[in-house]
Amino acid sequence: MALKHKIAMAGFTSKKLAEIVDITPNYLSQIVQGKASPSPIRAQAIIDALSARLGESFTIGDFFFDVSVKKNATDFISEFG
């Protein structure tokens, strides 16, 4: 499911989610539109915020289709998470 849809389902405004994951609303908008790729830490922070709010478990691959984002995040989480 699209990241934008999950943000809405979670009841977050873009501004609130951006604040929670410590990025600007503009940067979050770029991520949602596929114009920017988040760092592994930010990708996981977005997933954690949505998972907590929706009571579901998500993975990097559920939202981030850019192979480098998924690989970097997966490697990072494996090593440090």
Q: Can you offer a commentary on this structure?
A:
68% of the residues lie in helices and 0% in strands. With 81 residues, the chain is mainly α. The N and C termini lie far apart (24 Å).
- Outline the biggest β-sheet: none
The helix content, as a percent range, equals 55-70%
Number of helices: 6
Q: CA-to-CA gap between the ends? A: 24 Å
Radius of gyration: 12 Å
Using DSSP, what is the number of strands? 0
User: Low-confidence segments, ≥5 residues, pLDDT <50?
Assistant: none
Silhouette: globular
SS-derived structural category: mainly alpha
Strand percent estimate: under 5%
Estimate the mean pLDDT confidence.
Answer: 81
Task: Summarize the helix and strand pattern as letters.
Answer: HHHHHH
Topology overview:
Elements: H1 3-9, H2 14-20, H3 25-32, H4 40-54, H5 60-63, H6 67-80
Helix pairs in contact: 2-3, 4-6
